[in-house]
Amino acid sequence: MRKQIIIANWKMNPRTAKETKNIFERIKNASKKYQRVEVVVTPPHIYLPLIKAGSRIKLGAQDIFFKDEGPFTGEISAGMLKDSGVSYVLIGHSERRELGETLETVRKKIYQAASKGFRAVLCVGEKEKNQEAFPVMVKEEIISALKGVPRRLASKTIIAYEPVWAISSHSGGKSDTPQNFFEMSIYIRRILLDIWGKNAALRIPIIYGGSVNSKNVKGFLDVKGASGVLVGKASLNPAEFIKILEIADKK
Ligand code: 13P
């Protein structure tokens, strides 16, 4: 049985340690019931030592640096993340790219995360809605990020398709459609096939992110070949996020 991967990306929230612990504990307790879901919570780095992964809940980081240690003010290493119980890392989120993260940096981070044994979640997505053609930007982001990453690390990679225009902070909560996600996931798999060949490409999970909530999640999880969702805003509301887990568990 392949579990649905449901990742809570808390971004730069919650405001306090107390709130962080409360939300996490509620999600952690609820997660015990769900055997068919891989629940991952990615808080800001500073909160990682306050919360503990469990048998049904994993910790993720929102970023990683590509060097092991040294004079890199403000950065967080793979070793530090491992030491904090992290097993997933988000890389190349559009909000980081908007702040200046380059294709080259994303590539180095993917390699670092996957080669150090994390599940590396490569975030890709076009900025504008484009109904005419498949976005070149997504292709470029994938090809560039995976350049030089050996096939043996394919099993460590997850692709999160996050159309930037459908992220709640841009769209006011309006998501993409499951049909578009379906078409994009086929397009993405074809790109992966060219890079790593059929066997690896077929096994890489592709998940959707962008205004996911308890009302629309089923549509995205029902998409053939899809493996889960990346949830931003709705993951900060424990009742709402637990509903998402419940729906995913029934898949
Ligand atoms: P929202 O769920 O708030 O739209 O955020 C999703 C996201 O950032 C996908 O990567």
Descriptive key words:
single chain, 251 residues, alpha/beta, TIM Barrel, 8-stranded parallel barrel, 8 strands, 17% strand, globular, binds 1,3-dihydroxyacetonephosphate
Protein architecture, described:
The protein is α/β, with parallel strands linked by helices and 251 residues long. The protein has a single domain (4-249), classed as TIM Barrel (Alpha-Beta Barrel), CATH 3.20.20.70. Helix content is 38%, strand content 17%. The chain is built from ten helices and eight strands. The chain has an eight-stranded parallel β-barrel, surrounded by five helices. Strand 7, helix 9 and strand 8 (228-231) form a beta-alpha-beta unit. The longest helix has 19 residues, at 178-196. The termini are close together. The mean pLDDT is 96. The site of 1,3-dihydroxyacetonephosphate (13P) has 16 residues, from strand 8.
H/E series, N to C?
A: EHEEHEHHEHEHHHEHEH
Specify the helix fraction band. Answer: 25-40%
Largest sheet, strands/sense/barrel = 8 strands, parallel, barrel
Strand content: 15-25%
Gyration radius (Cα, Å) is: 17 Å
Question: Could you give the order of strands across the largest sheet?
Answer: 1-2-3-4-5-6-7-8
CATH homology-level superfamily: Aldolase class I
Mean pLDDT: 96
**What hetero molecules are bound to the protein chains?**
1,3-dihydroxyacetonephosphate
- Spans of 5+ residues with little confidence (pLDDT < 50)? none
Number of helices: 10
Kindly provide the name of the CATH class: Alpha Beta
Structural class: alpha/beta
